[in-house]
Design goal:
The protein is α/β, with parallel strands linked by helices and 425 residues long. It contains 19 helices and 13 strands.
């Protein structure tokens, strides 16, 4: 029997070191069997997995919550499997979506899987002795024939049960259509869990709180098919202090792929964390000891900026490596101290772009300060853009060689917190 036990309702403190850390740092939202998971984590290595559909060529910072939970478990001797949805991405998860996702073709899915693989492989120890693996669920899902799949698994799912989950119910309550294709998605994810339990003795699935229904289906399928004892754990879906979904900014998603969001722009995102979010983000997104986190979050005023820099540098080191993190910190220190002439450029662009009549709006998009020219226009018209430390409020402004200073550079700022040093060459 599954149960919803928020961490605030725990009657007994966890005994296993792994669950103690997950609870203390804020990773636990729901669990199908909290006592059973605590007991099992204390008995020896547990194989666990989290799945990520390949709807884009990169994950974003919102995905870091389950990834960081898995990193902690690997550090404590457990064995993580990262499942890339090469099969499920051909359908698309309808969970809490107001309408169906656009269908991706096989070539797009394959490209996206390759992009996510590059990112995720940097976050885990994939050596055989560490037990970390990355698997594509196309390995088994694409092998099923339709009638075989229905006969083998369809009997274990009831429509009554499937429509009771919030992810489906919210769509139906809004009278928004849900296709049979989308409706079957939860069956596929449940089969993922069952296949992993058979192939790799996987016992635990981790996912965002929006995946609760899909996870419960997998737990129940394992029990119904051959009496397997599987468990599910969800992590919270985070919003910032402003109420914005974690990983979204005015310029779009904060991707983990350095080709989409530069390591410096990534560092700057975390450096601009709201004061009230610093403690929570240090617990979730760094591996600093809790005592050090407590010390940092007691800082006030301007001193709290040091805690934000430590947060930014530690997260960037985990995602992009220590060298990129050090470089981003040095760039940030130079830019925000007004010493841009000593900093390395945060963006390098071809010099011939100036000859092609480069507009200010296009430049704002290129440095990730805006998602589109329309967003950039609104930013400029609101007086929030500074070019070489001077406010520019004309969206028709063009960039010319006369804007370049020493070493063919210019500085660009959006508000007080976002700065870029752009070099042309």
């Amino acid at each position: 029997m599954t149960q919803h036990i928020p961490p605030s309702h725990l009657e007994v403190e966890p005994r296993s070191e792994a669950l103690q850390i997950l609870v203390e740092r804020g990773f636990v939202h729901q669990c199908t069997d909290m006592a059973g998971l605590d007991r099992r984590l204390g008995q020896g290595p547990v194989t666990l997995y989290a799945g990520f559909d390949a709807t884009a060529a990169s994950l974003h910072v919102g995905h870091l919550v389950p990834l960081m939970a898995m990193r902690w478990l690997q550090k404590l001797g457990h064995w993580p499997i990262i499942v890339l949805g090469g099969g499920t991405s051909l359908i698309g998860d309808p969970s809490f979506k107001s309408e169906g996702r656009p269908l991706l073709d096989q070539m797009q899915v394959d490209r996206n899987v390759a992009g996510i693989f590059r990112t995720v492989s940097r976050l885990f120890d994939l050596s055989p002795e560490a037990g970390g693996r990355i698997i594509n669920n196309a390995e088994w899902l694409t092998e099923f024939r339709f009638l075989e799949f229905l006969r083998q698994y369809g009997q274990h799912f009831t429509v009554n049960r499937m429509i009771s989950f919030d992810a489906v119910k919210s769509r139906l309550d809004a009278n928004a259509p849900m296709t049979v294709l989308e409706f079957c998605y939860m069956m596929l994810q449940a089969v993922d869990f069952l296949e992993l339990s058979k192939r790799s003795d996987c016992e635990l699935q981790i996912g965002g709180s929006d995946q609760w229904g899909n996870i419960v289906n997998g737990v129940e399928l394992g029990r119904k098919v051959d009496g397997r004892s599987l468990m599910g754990l969800t992590v919270p879906l985070l919003t910032t202090a402003s109420g914005q979904k974690m990983g979204k900014t005015a310029a779009g998603a904060v991707w983990l792929d350095p080709d989409r969001v530069s390591p410096f722009a990534f560092w700057q995102f975390w450096r601009n964390t709201a004061d009230v979010d610093v403690a929570r983000f240090l617990k979730l997104f760094t591996e600093l000891p809790m005592g050090e986190i407590a010390r940092l979050t007691e800082l006030e005023g301007a001193e709290l900026n040091e805690a934000k820099k430590i947060l930014a540098t530690h997260v960037t080191a985990i995602v992009h490596g220590p060298e990129e993190a050090r470089h981003a910190l040095e760039q940030g220190d130079a830019l925000f101290s007004g010493q841009a002439e000593t900093a390395e450029p945060t963006y390098i662009m071809p010099l011939d772009m100036l000859a092609e009549d480069l507009g200010l709006l296009e430049l704002l998009v290129a440095v990730d300060f805006a998602m589109s020219n329309g967003d950039a226009r609104r930013l400029v018209e609101a007086g929030g853009v500074r070019l070489n430390a001077r406010v520019v409020d004309d969206p028709r402004r063009r960039i010319s060689s006369g804007d370049l200073g020493a070493k063919d550079r210019l500085t660009l700022a959006a508000g007080k917190r976002r700065k870029a040093l752009v070099a042309f060459g």
